[in-house]
Amino acid sequence: MNKNTIEGNWEQLKGDVQKKWGKLTNDDLDVVEGNRKKLSGLIQEKYGKAQDEVEKELDEFESSRKNAA
Description:
mainly alpha, 5 helices, Protein Yjbj, Chain: A, 0% strand, single chain
Protein backbone atom coordinates (compact mmCIF):
# COMPACT_ATOMS: atom_id res chain seq x y z
CA MET A 1 0.00 0.00 0.00
CA ASN A 2 1.45 3.30 -1.07
CA LYS A 3 2.28 5.42 1.97
CA ASN A 4 0.56 8.47 0.50
CA THR A 5 -2.53 6.44 -0.39
CA ILE A 6 -2.99 5.03 3.09
CA GLU A 7 -2.31 8.34 4.85
CA GLY A 8 -4.36 10.44 2.45
CA ASN A 9 -7.41 8.18 2.68
CA TRP A 10 -7.03 7.01 6.27
CA GLU A 11 -10.41 8.21 7.49
CA GLN A 12 -12.15 6.29 4.69
CA LEU A 13 -9.92 3.23 5.11
CA LYS A 14 -10.28 2.82 8.88
CA GLY A 15 -13.63 1.06 8.66
CA ASP A 16 -12.44 -1.34 5.97
CA VAL A 17 -9.23 -2.05 7.89
CA GLN A 18 -11.21 -2.85 11.00
CA LYS A 19 -13.52 -5.17 9.04
CA LYS A 20 -10.53 -7.10 7.67
CA TRP A 21 -8.48 -7.11 10.89
CA GLY A 22 -11.19 -7.09 13.56
CA LYS A 23 -8.78 -7.42 16.47
CA LEU A 24 -7.64 -3.85 15.83
CA THR A 25 -9.52 -1.41 18.05
CA ASN A 26 -10.52 2.15 17.26
CA ASP A 27 -7.75 3.26 19.62
CA ASP A 28 -5.24 1.14 17.67
CA LEU A 29 -6.34 2.75 14.42
CA ASP A 30 -6.13 6.24 15.93
CA VAL A 31 -2.51 5.53 16.91
CA VAL A 32 -1.71 4.26 13.40
CA GLU A 33 -2.83 7.57 11.84
CA GLY A 34 -2.50 6.03 8.37
CA ASN A 35 1.11 4.97 8.84
CA ARG A 36 1.58 1.65 7.02
CA LYS A 37 4.56 0.63 9.14
CA LYS A 38 2.58 1.13 12.35
CA LEU A 39 -0.40 -0.70 10.86
CA SER A 40 1.79 -3.59 9.80
CA GLY A 41 3.36 -3.80 13.26
CA LEU A 42 -0.02 -3.82 15.00
CA ILE A 43 -1.36 -6.55 12.72
CA GLN A 44 1.76 -8.62 13.38
CA GLU A 45 1.36 -8.12 17.12
CA LYS A 46 -2.38 -8.79 17.33
CA TYR A 47 -2.41 -11.77 14.96
CA GLY A 48 1.05 -13.26 15.57
CA LYS A 49 1.94 -13.13 11.88
CA ALA A 50 5.28 -12.67 10.17
CA GLN A 51 6.12 -9.32 8.59
CA ASP A 52 6.19 -10.69 5.03
CA GLU A 53 2.77 -12.28 5.50
CA VAL A 54 1.28 -9.03 6.78
CA GLU A 55 2.87 -7.03 3.94
CA LYS A 56 1.30 -9.44 1.44
CA GLU A 57 -2.09 -9.02 3.13
CA LEU A 58 -1.75 -5.23 3.01
CA ASP A 59 -0.84 -5.36 -0.69
CA GLU A 60 -3.87 -7.58 -1.39
CA PHE A 61 -6.07 -5.24 0.65
CA GLU A 62 -4.94 -2.28 -1.42
CA SER A 63 -5.45 -4.16 -4.67
CA SER A 64 -8.97 -5.19 -3.69
CA ARG A 65 -9.83 -1.57 -2.88
CA LYS A 66 -8.45 -0.36 -6.22
CA ASN A 67 -10.44 -3.02 -8.09
CA ALA A 68 -13.62 -2.06 -6.23
CA ALA A 69 -13.24 1.62 -7.17
